[in-house]
Write a structure and sequence with these properties.
The protein is an alpha/beta fold and 252 residues long. The protein has helices spanning 3-11, 26-35, 53-59, 79-91, 103-107, 111-124, 141-154, 172-184, 200-214, 231-238; strands at residues 15-19, 37-38, 41-42, 45-48, 65-70, 96-100, 129-133, 158-160, 190-194, 224-228. The strands form two sheets. Strands 1-4-5-6-7-8-9-10 form an eight-stranded parallel beta barrel, surrounded by six helices. A two-stranded antiparallel ribbon has the order 2-3. The chain starts with a helix and ends in a 14-residue tail after the last helix. The relative contact order is 0.17.
Amino acid sequence: MTDLAAAAARAIPLLDLTSLEAEDDEAKIEALCRRAVTPAGPVAALCVYARFLPLARRKLAAGIRLAAVANFPTGAAPPDAVAAEIVQALAAGADEIDVVFPYAAFAAGARADAEALLAAARAASAGHSLKVILETGRLTPDQITDAARLAIAAGADFLKSSTGKLQPAATPESARLLLEAAAASERRVGVKLAGGIRSADQAAAYLALADSVMGPGWASAETFRFGASALLDDLLAALGHHARAMPSGNRY
C-alpha cells in the first residue's frame, strides 16, 4: 500500500460526512446516509442540519454517529436560544453537537459573551460530545489559542476549525494551533478540521501534522475528525475504489 493509500485508509473512519447546504432535502440526506458505509468501511459520523435528524436516524447504518450543528453558521444567537437548539437536536436523535463559537463578538473583545455561550452549550449537551467551531479564519493566531483554551476550560470535547461557510477555513497553521491547545489540556480533547479539505493529499498532510504534534497513534475517531463530504471520493480513489455520485450541491 502506498503512503497516500495508507493515509486514505486512516482518514475514512475519521470522517464526519457532512451536508450543510441551503438546498439540502430528504433525497440528498438519504443519499448521504448510503454513502456513509463505504467500500473501505464506515465513516465516523454524519453531520446535518437538525431538521434532518429523524430521517438520518432511520436511514443511517448502525454504529455511525449522528451530529447536528447549533448556532450555525454565524455564531450570533444568545446562549438561551443556543441551549434550546441543542436540547431539541439531542431529542431528535443527535449523538454529537457542533456548536459555533461567537467568533465575531470574541474578536471584538466580548470575552464574557463567549464564556456564557460555551457554558450554556456544555450544560445543554451534558453527556454528549460537544465540538466547538471556532471559525479560525476570522481570528488572529493569538485569538485562536485563547478561544481554544476557553472552549477547553468550558468542557469542549473537540476543537473544530471552521463552519465551512467562510474563507479561509481549515489551514495547516490554524490546525497546528488547535492541536497544540489540545496537547496542553490536562484531559483528552479532540480536533476536527473542516472547510475546504477535498483531497487525499490534504488529509494525509493533516494526519502527518497530528502525528507530529500529538504522537503516532493519537488520531482516532475519538480524538480527530475531518468534516467534509467532497473528500470522500478522493480518499476512495486513493484506495482504488470507483467514485460514487456525490449528492449535488455539496460544497462542504
